Structure formats: C-alpha cells, structure tokens
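ok trying again, last paste got cut off:
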Amino acid sequence: MDSYPEVMRRVLLFLNPLLIDNAKRRAAVEQIAELLSGHGSDVHLQETLSAHSAGQQAREAVAEGFDTFLVCGGDGTVFQVMQGLAGSAATLGVLPFGTGNVIAQNLRIPRDPLRAAHLLLDAEARAVSLGKIEVRSAGQKGRSWYFFIAAGMGVHAALMNLAPTGQGKRHGGRLAYFVGGARLLLGHPVQPFALEMTRADGSVETQTACEAIATHVPEINRWRPGGDPFGCELRVAWVPPTNRLGLGHASFHALATRRQNGHYGWGGLPFPRYEIVTRMVCRPLNGSTYDPPLLVEADGEVLGAQYTAIGMAREKLNLLWPKSAE
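nice, full thing came through this time. structure:
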C-alpha cells in the first residue's frame, strides 16, 4: 500500500453546519483545533456553504496550499469534499459527526470526534481506490461523481431520499432510517430494472433486478458486503425481481445469515446474489414506466434517477488511515 510524507502542516477543518449546530459539538470542534495546533499544525476552520459547494471549496483550498482536510460531518459531507480532492496530493481525514459514519466504521475510528482526532494524529496517508458513478435521466446530460462506500439503484436509494434536508437524520438519527425503511417496504413499489455487469475478464452478464448496489468497503453498519477499498473491482449485491416480502427476505439474509447465491427459499423468496465486477449499468426495462422514478444513490446521497453507470475511477484519494484499522 502506498504511503505519503508527513501531513497536517496546513489543516482545513471542514464543518457541516447542520451537524455541529449545538454548543457541545461546537466545543468539540474547538478542542480538536486546539489539539492540532498544539502539535504544530496551522489550522483553519471553514463551513460548507451548501450541500454541493464543498467540492469546489476543497479544490480552491488545495490551490491555496492546504495539505490536509479533516471533515467534521457525516458520510455525505465526506462525499462532497471528496469531489474536490480526488486525484490531488491532499489528504482527507474523517471526524465523525454524522448519522451512519460508515467510513469511520471501516477505519475503526471511534464515534467520539475528539478521540478520533487523537487517532488521526498518528495515522498515515494511504492511497485508496475510488468508484465513479455517472447518472442521467431521460433527455438530460449525464453527470459523474466519485464515491468511496457504495453506489446503486433500488429501494435502498429511496431510503436515502427520506430526509433530503437532513432534518430527519438530525432529529431521529439511525432510528429515522429504521422507521423509514419499514415504511418503504410496506408502501414503496419494488420495481424491476435491467442490470448489466462486466467482470474483470471482460465477460458481460445481463440480468433483471429490483435492487443492485456496488460496494467498495468491507462493512456497512450491520451488513458485511466484503468490498476492498484498495482494490480495482466492486462487489455487487443484487436481488432478482420479487415483491416486498421477497426483498425483505433477501435483506434479512444479507444482514443476519449472509446466505447468498443459493436457490430460492421457501415460497420462491430470493436470497441476495453477489458478483465481482469492474462496471455495473442499471437502466429502465424497455417499455416500462416508473412511478415513482428509479432512484440512484452513492455514499448515501441521492444523485438522480432512471440510468446509472458505475465503475472504478482512475483517480485515487489519500485517506488518513489510523493504525487501529490495521
């Protein structure tokens, strides 16, 4: 694994104002700034101006000479900042203030931000691979993003769309997702779409699925998809066409029993299926109408609808990797 020279000479603490809007969290940020300054870092604080401005803010800060970016937020804030750091010499570190904090989970970073900052002082920068996702709707020009955790199409993307303003996540935390997920399984249509998967040997398989997610990390909360953040492939989990009960059955086995790629279970209910791919394309079935539209997400951020192409990026990201994650 690649390593890089010492970092944290000029540090930008990126703050998500929605996630540090109380006195206790603000105090934690100030303590982190004092900690870093005490170890010789030139520390600056900057709030993200909007959900979609952080990437440009990061690019401008790189041009100004900042070498380290510590994100005080959740996975969504990391996702936005990452857009401006991918392919650069700058290093990104995670200080968990969010709801899911999946990146922090995979780095074995504690949920307490001050404890996390202490760990990052002794971390090394490693070049991790990134996924790249292109999204477009009918008649619209496509747009692409980098991602680190996972990306895909299906009901799980609709779950990420429950609280686009962040209010539900801030007030309900993880409970908001569990409650929202239960409501979705009861009321959201499970809609089939075309899934095209390209393997490392160039072979292409086309299937019909109702859920597909390309994972890049080993763990997503209680789910263990088995991705590799240093690898050049993605691990796709997908579910063949089924109803709400079948999707619930597949989700249960992905979380609890990890049974996969087997025959259908009792009553024809499907198990989750897994493939190692370099590229995945999801698109509407010919002649099908979708209401609501098929949603696409990456790292928990809903990016669009109807069509997505997901693969590996050429660019890498320098990520602060604590020794506790070895």
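cool. The first helix runs from residue 23 to 38. Confidence is low (pLDDT under 50) at residues 1-5, 164-171.
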